[in-house]
């Protein structure tokens, strides 16, 4: 299992891309490496790299490559995000997509051509670097596709899938230098080509980027876990629904896999001290990481984030200023020391066995609201996790009678949310028939 961090430059935050300082980057990355982490995820701002649809700045691409090379010098691999897009409540769409030049970034032919050109150029720049971990299309780009974004680039699910396939293909082509490499086929190269969504994909029926898009397209399934989404407000900062939210999201994502061996990458998770007491930050980190690391099929955990946002930076939401493992003055925080210890302990730990229990999610009806914190399915999963000590796998109703699939996932019995009560032990399990279809659940 890999342990890394989302790299937020200590000086200048992501505006540091305006004044690339290799020495400052090297100092930051040396601190990350000293925490026994093995990779970073970096975020060049899209509007700085491609300020005009026809102009991709060579100096900006060179700065990205220089950060990757600086990371190699201290023993870190790098995942690069492309279409930034959106970070920490701020949007960084290039001017050729906004106001007088407003285009739908997902469907407009000119916009798509510009995005493809950028991804190819970035892939070509990074091609062959031995410490390149992968290329992600962008940070939570799905937030542009629907409300609650104030000016959404509205699309439907088919358009979302077409956009993903086209741009994943462009990224792969840039990295490989080959025409038509299958972006949706895992294992076509050593580097990962992925896409990332915030949790509306799993929790909000308005969201056109669907769970199956996350689980079928790209080389791994990527999830971002944040408990300010109602989990901590409902369960408390150290409640089961909070410290196991990341574990739950990994299990939920895997339910849509058509290949039981497909990995899930917990690409973002952090401790928001607006809903978790600052005195509980270390405990939250330790419990969150241990629970998530106990899920079979998890490829890695990338913590958010490396360095606190400086208080000189204005207008950020309060939560953003205290998420780092290192403070704005360069001092490692208790959370940094805790994650380092966990990385040393868990990196080479034996692969965990899958949970033998499958909690059935009825995907034949609208279900995403019920999967969110406070929803019936989420709360049933939490109660089952409290009862068993580990969270159950999630099984889609549409696949719950496929005995071969269940066996491949190591599922021995099925449960339904209506049979998991808040009182531990109150359930009626369904055995998975050996060599045949799963038995029908009766209450």
Automatic annotation (TrEMBL):
**Protein name (record):** Glycosyl hydrolase
The protein's organism comes out as: Sanguibacter keddieii (strain ATCC 51767 / DSM 10542 / NCFB 3025 / ST-74)
């Amino acid at each position: 299992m890999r342990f890394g961090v989302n790299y937020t430059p200590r000086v200048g935050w992501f505006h540091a891309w305006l004044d690339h300082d290799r020495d400052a980057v090297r100092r930051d990355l040396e601190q990350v490496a000293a925490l026994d982490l093995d990779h970073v995820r970096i975020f060049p701002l899209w509007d700085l790299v491609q300020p005009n649809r026809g102009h991709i700045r060579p100096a900006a691409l060179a700065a990205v490559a220089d950060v990757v090379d600086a990371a190699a010098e201290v023993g870190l691999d790098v995942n690069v995000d492309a279409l930034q897009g959106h970070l920490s409540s701020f949007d960084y769409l290039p001017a050729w997509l906004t106001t007088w030049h407003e285009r739908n970034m997902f469907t407009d032919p000119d916009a798509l051509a510009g995005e493809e050109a950028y991804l190819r150029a970035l892939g070509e720049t990074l091609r062959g670097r031995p410490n390149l971990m992968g290329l992600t299309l962008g940070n939570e780009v799905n937030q542009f596709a629907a409300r609650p974004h104030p000016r959404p680039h509205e699309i439907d699910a088919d358009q979302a899938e077409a956009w993903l396939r086209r741009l994943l293909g462009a990224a792969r082509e840039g990295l490989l230098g080959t025409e038509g490499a299958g972006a949706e086929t895992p294992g076509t190269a050593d580097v990962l080509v992925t896409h990332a969504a915030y949790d509306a994909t799993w929790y909000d029926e308005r969201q056109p980027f669907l769970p199956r898009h996350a689980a079928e397209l790209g080389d791994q399934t990527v999830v971002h876990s944040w408990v300010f989404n109602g989990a901590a407000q409902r369960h408390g900062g150290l409640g089961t629904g909070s410290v196991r939210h990341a574990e739950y999201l990994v299990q939920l994502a895997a339910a849509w896999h058509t290949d039981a061996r497909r990995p899930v990458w917990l690409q973002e998770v952090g401790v928001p001290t607006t809903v978790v007491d600052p005195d509980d930050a270390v405990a939250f980190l330790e419990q969150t990481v241990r629970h998530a690391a106990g899920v079979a099929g998890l490829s890695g955990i990338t913590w958010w984030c490396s360095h606190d946002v400086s208080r000189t930076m204005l207008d950020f939401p309060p939560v953003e200023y205290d998420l780092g493992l290192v403070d704005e003055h360069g001092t490692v925080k208790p959370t940094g020391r805790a994650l380092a210890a966990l990385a040393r302990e868990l990196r080479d730990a034996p692969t965990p066995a899958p949970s033998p229990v499958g909690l059935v999610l009825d995907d034949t009806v609208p279900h995403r609201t019920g999967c969110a914190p406070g929803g019936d399915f989420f709360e049933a999963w939490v109660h089952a996790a409290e009862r068993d000590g580990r969270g159950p796998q999630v099984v889609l109703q549409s696949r719950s009678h496929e005995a071969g699939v269940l066996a491949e996932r190591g599922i021995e019995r099925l449960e339904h949310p209506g049979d998991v009560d808040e009182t531990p032990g109150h359930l009626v399990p369904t055995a998975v028939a050996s060599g045949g279809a799963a038995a029908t659940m009766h209450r």
